[in-house]
Amino acid sequence: MAQIWMQLLLAGAIGVLAGYILWGARPTRQEPDQPPQAEADPVTRPIADTPAEDPLADMEERLRDATARLDRCRGDRLRKDARIRELEALVDELRGEAAFTAPLPDPDVIPTRPAGRDAPRPGGADDLTRIQGIGPKLQSLCHDLGIYHFDQLAALTPAELAWIDAHLPGFPGRATRDDWPGQARRLLES
Questions:
Q1: CB count, 10 Å around CB of 1?
Q2: Residue 13 — very low, low, confident or very high, per pLDDT cuts 50/70/90?
């Protein structure tokens, strides 16, 4: 019987310790008569998701804000667990969006459809996946646009490159960002 009471007492102590670790370190609720402290606590302040007139500038601002808040959070040992993981995920997401944001089109360049081919030359299509940034999906999209060979990519003008960037669904700006013509020229030279 004493052994059962000892086990119950031990389980209760573990429960109290776990409760303190999980919930005891949280900030206390603010009393209604106190002024709000939204700006005073950068860790608990929500991240704005409202779109701005310039989406790229808004995304950069959100990334800077989230990164600064993450840095502040990392030093605060009491709140680090869940909130840091949440902010790390947000920073990674925003960095991913920033990495795949299409470059702003040059207003002086009028997109022009490049002269494509109906089928590859008799020797077969080149392996476009040798170009960094082109995987099997993009290679298939290039084939749909009539581009099968490195020399076709190497000969693209800025206007034709702008047209390709605009007609790669799900990959806007990829051809310019990864410099497909330059990579194709290097492959042809080697």
A1: 5
A2: confident
Beta strands in 85-179 (DSSP E): none
Nearest to 127 by CA among 140, 117, 115: 140
Task: Kindly state the helix (H) or strand (E) to which residue 97 belongs, with its residue range.
Answer: helix 80-99
Structure tokens at 76: 């605060």
Positive or negative torsion for Cα 38, 39, 44, 47: positive
Q: Has residue 150 got a pLDDT over 90?
A: yes
The answer to whether 188 and 151 are in contact (CB under 8 A) is: yes
185-189 — which CB contacts under 8 Å span 24+ positions? 185/154, 187/130, 187/131, 187/150, 188/150, 188/151, 188/154
What is the rounded CA–CA span in Å between residue 154 and residue 181?
A: 4
Helices 55-75 and 80-99, axial angle in degrees (round to 10): 150
Q: Is 86 exposed, middle or buried (0-12, 13-18, 19+ CB in 10 A)?
A: middle
In this structure, the number of other CB atoms found within 10 A of the CB of residue 116 comes to: 15
Tell me the angle at which helices 158-166 and 180-189 cross, rounded to the nearest 10 degrees. 120
pTM, 2 dp = 0.45
Q: Please count the other Cβ atoms lying within 10 Å of the Cβ belonging to residue 138.
A: 20
